[in-house]
Amino acid sequence: MRADNIQGFRSDIVSLLRELDSGIYRWPGGNMLAGYDWRDGIGDIDKRPPRYDYAWNAVESNDVGTEEFLILCDLLNIDPYICVNIGFGDAHSAAQWVEYVNGTKDTPMGRIRAFNGHPEPYHVEWWSIGNEMYGQWQLGHMSIEHYILKHNMFAKAMRDVDPTIKLIASGATPFETSTTVRHHRKPLPSRLPYEFGSREDWSGQLLAHASDNFDFLAEHLYPVTTQAFDADSQKFVPVDDPIVDQVRRVPNRVKAVAESWDHYLKTMPRLKNKNITFALDEWTGGSWRSGFVRTLCAAEGLHEIFRHSDIITMGGYTAVTSCVRFTETDACYSSIGLLFKLYRHHFGTIPVKVSGNSPQHPVKGTIGVDKPLVISGSDTYPLDIVAALTADRKVVTVAIVNPTEPIQELNLNFKGAKFPKNAKKFQIAVPEIDVRNTSGEDLVIEIQESAVEKVPEKMQVAPLSISLYELELR
Question: How far apart are alpha carbons 232 and 296 in whole angstroms?
């Protein structure tokens, strides 16, 4: 470990992540969770047992465990979110983990935590029960009936220890269980798309049989931007689409979550008084090697999450390492990191309606599998636009994504608002789609800030760009 480390973490990466100000980190999560025993990751690091991780075929050293994760969250001033093992795990062990983290030093697990150097409880609020247990790729994969039984047992045991925690259930709408069949090896129980109310509708079954035992429903989004589902062949097939259509598939999956919730409310009216919302605690889009396309996907996905912030409480992008590029000696922001930094520090929090006269174009796919009934996005094709007021209502922020290679023109009108002459513009743009930042080298992608003397009625929107305007209200 480098001499300038901060409590075991690299100072340069801590600095980048602290400035990113992400709000919340989820751990351990992922496919390894169902084989993880939290007891292996506490106490003296040099005495922790390494374990073989059968999910990723690798050895887990357990050098980073509960304390280290919570130290990192404290260093970054963000909320920790812990996932418990429901795959090969049991409710008693999950409850003990809650007690180890949140119990007083007079409790059995709290005494062990105090012995390990932290007498005071950590007061972790966010907890989820399992990860993607609907998937055949998961260790301990089970049926929805089995999961509901275990979830209810876990929820009771964990809340008996600390009734103040917020619980997230490992849900999956038919969109999620349909799009992930490409990872399954067994014959499918029926043709796609799966129906609401079926055994493959994990979120619907959880809402019907366990809604008293969680506060949020997890949904994971990993749309394949270069494939579309063909209903006749029942397969995802490659498509040679323009970038604008590739990028649209990510917000389409977000829109599908909103449509699912509308269906649940219609079929289960009692949910209106439950205040349950979605936690998109894993989402991304685009190939890992798709360069700036993936950043455009993240931007438009983020826009669609904004549009449905009434039913989506959390959006956890996969993963922290997507935001930074690093070697053993250097680190810098990736273009995705720059995107989240830009919106975190400059985009507002109170939604403002955006309308237009150029509806988004449909993309290939199958409704109910990889596309919603109503296409996502703003009526500003090929651009995607969202707007919001800052919390103090003094500034209107407007964010524009141009996922095309030519310059686009935009006629912009505001109703019920007047602005002074000066404004600010922030922009992330690339000369070509495959460029990316490389740690230890000169940055080729940065946030460019400029002053705008007059709020323009007609804008020139740069190719392959993400632009954000701050407009002060009079």
Answer: 31
Ramachandran angles phi, psi of 68, nearest 5°: -65, -40
State the DSSP string of 75-126. Answer: HHT-EEEEEE--SS--HHHHHHHHHHHHS-TTSHHHHHHHHTT--S-----E
**150, β-bridge pairs:** none
Dihedral in degrees, nearest 10, Cα atoms 178, 183, 187, 192 = 20
Q: Where are the alpha helices (DSSP H) in 213-363?
A: 243-267, 292-307, 335-346
The DSSP result for 186-211, as a single string, is SPPSSPSSPPTTSTT-HHHHHHHHSG
pLDDT in tens, 212-263: 999 999 999 999 899 999 999 999 999 999 999 999 999 999 999 999 999 9
The position carrying tokens 């964010």 is 399
Domains of the chain: 11-352 (3.20.20.80), 384-472 (2.60.40.1180)
Could you read off the pLDDT of 432-471 as tens digits, one per residue?
Answer: 999 999 999 999 999 999 998 877 788 899 999 999 999 9
Evaluate the omega torsion of the peptide bond into residue 319 and state whether it is cis, within 30 degrees of 0: yes
CB atoms closer than 10 angstroms to residue 306: 20
Does pTM surpass 0.90? yes
Which amino acid, residue 393? Answer: R
Angle at 319 between CA 77 and CA 186, to 5 degrees: 140
Would you call 233 helix, strand, or coil by DSSP? coil
Alpha carbon distance 242, 405 (integer Å): 10
Instruction: State residue 460 phi and psi, 5-degree precision.
Output: -100, 115
Which residue carries 């069949």 as its tokens?
181
Would you tell me how many other CB atoms lie within 10 Å of the CB of residue 335?
Answer: 28
Which amino acid is residue 385, in one-letter code? I
For 9, the 3-state DSSP assignment is strand
Q: Exposed, middle or buried, 109 (CB in 10 Å: 0-12/13-18/19+)?
A: buried
Residues 6+ apart with CB under 8 A from 119: 105, 113
Q: How far apart are CA 468 and CA 403, in angstroms?
A: 15
Inter-residue contact 44 to 55 (CB < 8 Å): no
pLDDT (0 to 100) of residue 56: 87
CA end-to-end distance (rounded Å), the chain: 52
Residue with tokens 């549009």: 307
Residue 5 CA to residue 145 CA, distance in Å, equals 47
Geometric angle at alpha carbon 277, from 276 and 280, rounded to 5°: 145
* Over residues 100-113, mean pLDDT: 98
Tell me the three state secondary structure of residue 12.
helix
> Closest Cα partner for 8 from 90, 64, 86?
64
CB atoms within 10 A of CB 307: 20
